[in-house]
Design goal:
Bound molecules: adenosine-5'-triphosphate, magnesium ion
Strand content: 25-35%
Structural class: alpha+beta
Low-confidence stretches: none
CATH class of the largest domain: Alpha Beta
Shape: elongated
Radius of gyration: 33 Å
Number of domains: 3
CATH topology of the largest domain: Heat Shock Protein 90
Helix content: 40-55%
Distance between the termini: 26 Å
Mean pLDDT: 90
């Protein structure tokens, strides 16, 4: 999918850096839409220079949209949108003197030039219905004043902030605090007041600094000093309020700050529940692994005691089969979310089979490469057993008479398939061996059938077995 910057580059003459600036503006501009109760449209000068094209559109959460329809891709010319052209040409914020009627609704429109370095690279219009703000209350007035600041910063090339931290923006509606240039709290929105109450602050906090309230260090002062957007948190007990502090600039001067405040206690609580569940699942995998290892060592002991070579071999093979299942659980126990990177499991199985079955006088190397992606136990377990069987076969049958060799395991993920290739440079598998398969290949075949996968065996220059199973079922 083309990014916004790509789309801008394809319709305008802007440079990559300029287009990226507009893209990063559009990652931050919800706050402007919400503070100004307006729809926002981003206009970019078209490459033939006689029109503007709308490249992005945003609706406010704080008021009804004027534009339920999608406007992106529309072109407008100078006579249709004179103030867009003027803002672009003069590099100043232009406000329409009087509301215009569009479909019978009065609409007020401001045009804000977007500056990047020394150039105006686009225009943002704020379009809202003044009916909602005929006699603005205190909250509306604070919002509109803040919006005015942000608009001026956009036209001065100061918004979006450089180095905006990753992570989504809290919304204006989650809670808004305003500060003067010395860091004193000047206003708090009703939702912000409720959050402060939940943090245990019943008294009036206006006129004080956040850091004095005993809720931990906040980045307000640092944001005022460095003019950078900073994230922080207020917390007490189980209540956590995330803060995003936006310094407001007038020219070079920091004149105050806004903080968007979002109560994230519920989220934290959910995270905690999930992580407890996760730990429980991992503990269970750990125990299953221990139990399987106990079974394997019992069989190993028994294998040492029996006299018949055939019985010994059968018991040893079972040890490897059970051991490979144990390795899946071991890997799952180490990973969150009940999935394991199968490449990791395969490397461990390669090691186990190599250590356990290659005899001292044999010189056979086992190499595992590639990744198959994160798989759940339902897929990883049969694949692990399959791999163990195929490796056992290669070690037992491909290199008779101390013939040296290499066994390669290659893993890959192709669209929705997991591919596992086990390849040895030994004597090669005879075709009748395939037909009259004994237990090993029979197990493999029935596991792969059950997964809805396929197995292909080729025997030239050794044996190559390719297993392909759907990863999503
Ligand atoms: N990599 C290989 N190279 C050469 N021959 C092979 C290879 N893999 C399998 N074979 C042949 O195919 C036969 C069938 O393999 P299969 O795994 O089904 O049985 P097995 O290894 O003999 O016994 P087990 O049931 O213990 O696995 C083997 O006996 C062997 O002759
Ligand atoms: Mg076998």
């Amino acid at each position: 999918m083309a990014t916004l910057a790509d789309r801008i580059l394809s319709v305008s003459r802007l440079s990559r850096a300029e287009a990226e600036h507009l893209r990063s503006l559009c990652r931050s501009w919800q706050v402007l839409a919400d503070l100004s109760f307006s729809d926002l449209l981003l206009y970019v000068r078209s490459d033939d220079e006689d029109a503007f094209e709308i490249c992005a559109q945003l609706r406010p959460f704080t008021s009804q949209t004027l534009y339920p329809q999608d406007l992106v891709g529309q072109r407008v010319t100078q006579p249709e949108q004179p103030i867009v052209e003027r803002a672009f040409r003069e590099g100043r914020v232009w406000a329409q003197a009087d509301p215009v009627l569009v479909d019978g609704i009065p609409i007020r429109m401001d045009a804000v030039p977007v500056r990047y370095e020394d150039r105006v690279v686009g225009v943002v219009t704020k379009e809202g219905s003044p009916a909602t703000s005929r006699r603005p209350g205190r909250m509306e007035q604070v919002y509109l004043d803040a919006a005015e600041h942000v608009s001026q910063m956009i036209s001065a090339g100061r918004f979006p902030y450089p180095d905006t931290p990753a992570g989504d923006w809290p919304r204006v509606g989650d809670g808004l605090l305003t500060f003067d240039g010395s860091g004193s709290l000047t206003w708090a929105s009703p939702n912000a007041v409720s959050s402060l109450r939940r943090l245990g602050l019943a008294q009036n906090v206006l006129g004080r600094e956040l850091d004095e309230l005993g809720l931990g260090q906040t980045p307000v002062n640092e944001a005022l000093q460095t003019a950078k957007l900073l994230d922080g948190e207020l917390s007490r007990g189980d209540t956590h309020v995330r803060l995003r502090v936006m310094p407001l600039l007038d020219g070079e001067q920091v004149v105050g700050a806004l903080a968007l405040a979002r109560d994230i206690s519920e989220l934290r609580q959910k995270d905690r529940v999930i992580s407890v569940k996760d730990a429980t699942i991992r503990e269970i995998h750990h125990r299953v692994k221990n139990n399987l290892q106990t079974i394997a060592s019992l069989l190993r002991l028994q294998g040492r005691r029996v006299q018949s070579e055939e019985a010994k071999a059968a018991l040893n093979e079972s040890v490897v089969r059970i051991g490979s299942i144990a390795l899946v659980h071991e890997t799952l126990a180490e990973n969150p979310q009940d999935v394991a990177e199968f490449g990791e499991v395969a490397r461990r199985i390669g090691q186990m089979v190599g250590d356990g079955l290659v005899l001292p006088h044999q010189s056979v190397d086992v190499k595992v490469s590639g990744q198959a992606g994160a798989l759940g136990a339902d897929l990883a377990t049969p694949l692990a057993v399959t791999l163990a069987e195929l490796l056992q076969n290669a070690i037992e049958h491909a290199f008779p008479d101390d013939r040296p060799g290499t066994i390669k395991v290659e893993l890959a993920r192709e669209a929705d398939d997991v591919i596992m290739i086990v390849w040895d440079d030994g004597v090669g598998m005879s075709t009748d061996a395939l037909g009259g398969a004994r237990l090993g290949l029979q197990i493999v075949r029935s596991l792969i059938d059950e997964l809805g996968g396929t197995m292909r065996v080729a025997a030239d220059d050794g044996t190559r077995v390719e297993v392909r199973v759907p990863a999503l079922r």
